[in-house]
Structure formats: structure tokens, C-alpha cells
Design goal:
Layout: H1 4-16, E1 32-33, E2 39-40, E3 58-69, E4 73-83, E5 87-98, E6 103-117, E7 127-137, H2 141-146, E8 152-168, E9 171-182, E10 200-210, E11 215-222, E12 235-245, E13 248-256, E14 267-276
Antiparallel strand pairs: 1-2, 3-4, 3-14, 4-5, 5-6, 6-7, 7-8, 8-9, 9-10, 10-11, 11-12, 12-13, 13-14
């Protein structure tokens, strides 16, 4: 994808510009970068906004991620902007490689998220954020061939997140739940909707334990719809996230993505790096 190199360069610049990083939050509390560009886990957007900006700071982040499963590979690079810990804007470019067809599917995603209530750490009740992700395929020919109604679409989601300090035998415990209204097929890479389908409300969740202030281990779950009748299944992962400082995070995961476009048992690995400044 033409713009992936530019976005990769932005991620590298984040490391070189570490001295400019916003630092108004506790280490690791912004989460990492989700494959659709929003702050969150790997496959689920969380209520947190990207970066370490407080209510008088602005944060800019860059990230690149790769998911490699049995028959496919997904590369993503993107950038995020956090304005005063109130509004997040994000942009991501996805390239989905299909070796069996010797082709790539490319998609761009523009997102926004608004913190509507609370703080993940300090408020009594969970932080709530309302988000939107607009997705558009560069070439929708494969999606149309499979029976998708559209080659672009918009997801709307509501996320709730809470970090409980010292809650599990002295370890910090984090959880997030997200409700998404969507008709995307495989994130939108296979288009939107199908012959007899419409948008529906889908459930997503994550929970993690911080073994130290720098290392978190957890699991994610994402409900999927089967609009195309190809047996699309729910996603899940087990991850480890490392936050050595407030300038970079590294996430590794084992993925179970079920059936993709009729190819069953799509399992494999995931790696993501985010730079913060």
C-alpha cells in the first residue's frame, strides 16, 4: 500500500522524538493500538484515548502491526491524535494479503472517539467513550464477488473501561467491554453487509492483569456477524503487552480468528509496536 511506508516512517519518528512525549497519565493506561487504528487492545477498541495526554496536553502516536495466520496476513500502519484527553482522531491503512489468489485487499479507516464520562483509573465508575470508524476499500471487486452490499461502511461503538489498582492479590486488573453497531465483513476487508443481512449490535471484551507496572497479560474476544454466509466466526486472542517507558509499547499475541472466507482454523501470531510523543 502506497501510504504504509509513510505511516511506518511516522512510527519511527515517534521513537526519535521521545523527548516531546506527553506524560500526563500513568504508564500503560492508554492501552496500545488496535488494528482499526483506535486506542485499545489488538482487536478491540477500548474507552481510553490514545497516548499520554492529560486535559492540558496533546499527544500524537504512530504504530505498525502485523497479524500472520494460517492462510492470510494483515499489515496495518496508522497514526492517532489525542486532544486534551477528550477527543481522539485516528487513521489506519490495512493491507490484507491472500497468497492463494496472489492478491492484496487494501482498506483505509478514519476514526474518532470522544471520552464521554469518567477516567479509567480515578473515577468510581468506568470510563465511557463513544467512537466511530469509517472504512473504505480501495478496490471492492472481491467483496462484490462474494456478495457484499457495499464497499464502504461505518461502525459505531460504545466502550467502557476500568483499571482496578491492586485488585487481584495486589496486581492491577483491567477490563473493557465494547458494543459495536456494524455490518462489516472481516473488519470490512470483505465489504459490508450481505444478501440477507443488516447492521447488528456486536459484543467485544478484554481483560488483563499487570504482572508489573510494565507488563500486562490478557485475553480479548470479538463477536462477528456472518453476513456473507461463509462461516465468519468470532475472534479471540491471548496477548502480552510491554511498556518499557511512555515512549513505546510492544504487543505480542496468539490469535484464533476462526474461519475467514471459507478457510477454517485461522490461527497464528500478532505483533504491534506503538510510539508515543
Amino acid at each position: 500500500m502506497k501510504r504504509l511506508n509513510w505511516l511506518f516512517g511516522l512510527t519511527c519518528l515517534a521513537f526519535a522524538s521521545s523527548g516531546l512525549a506527553a506524560s500526563g497519565k500513568l504508564l500503560a493506561t492508554p492501552g496500545v493500538s488496535q488494528v482499526e487504528g483506535s486506542a485499545g487492545g489488538g482487536i478491540v477498541p477500548w474507552a481510553q484515548l490514545a497516548g499520554y495526554a492529560s486535559d492540558d496536553e496533546i499527544a500524537i502516536n504512530g504504530f505498525c502491526s502485523r497479524a500472520d495466520v494460517s492462510d492470510y496476513r494483515l499489515d496495518v500502519c496508522g497514526a492517532q491524535l489525542n486532544i486534551y484527553d477528550r477527543v481522539e482522531f485516528s487513521y489506519a491503512e490495512q493491507r490484507f494479503e491472500v497468497p492463494a489468489l496472489n492478491t492484496d485487499i487494501e482498506q483505509s479507516i478514519t476514526g474518532a472517539k470522544v471520552r464521554s464520562y469518567g477516567d479509567t483509573v480515578y473515577s468510581k465508575w468506568p470510563q465511557l467513550s463513544l467512537g466511530v470508524q469509517h472504512k473504505s476499500l480501495d478496490d471492492g471487486s472481491i467483496a462484490s464477488l462474494l456478495g457484499a452490499k457495499d464497499t464502504s461502511g461505518t461502525d459505531i461503538y460504545l466502550a467502557a473501561s476500568k483499571l482496578h489498582l491492586g485488585a487481584l492479590a495486589g496486581y492491577n486488573w483491567f477490563w473493557n467491554t465494547t458494543f459495536r453497531y456494524s455490518d462489516a465483513n472481516q473488519l470490512g476487508l470483505l465489504g459490508f453487509g450481505g444478501p440477507d443481512s443488516d447492521k447488528e449490535l456486536l459484543f467485544e471484551a478484554c481483560t488483563a492483569v499487570f504482572l508489573t507496572h510494565q507488563i500486562a497479560v490478557g485475553v480479548e474476544y470479538r463477536e462477528k456477524s456472518n453476513n456473507l454466509g461463509l462461516g465468519e466466526q468470532d475472534w479471540q486472542d491471548v496477548f502480552v503487552a510491554w511498556f518499557p517507558n511512555k515512549y513505546v509499547s510492544v504487543t505480542a499475541a496468539w490469535l484464533d480468528l476462526g474461519s475467514i472466507a471459507g478457510a477454517e482454523d485461522q490461527t497464528g501470531w500478532y505483533l504491534s509496536v506503538t510510539g508515543y510523543w
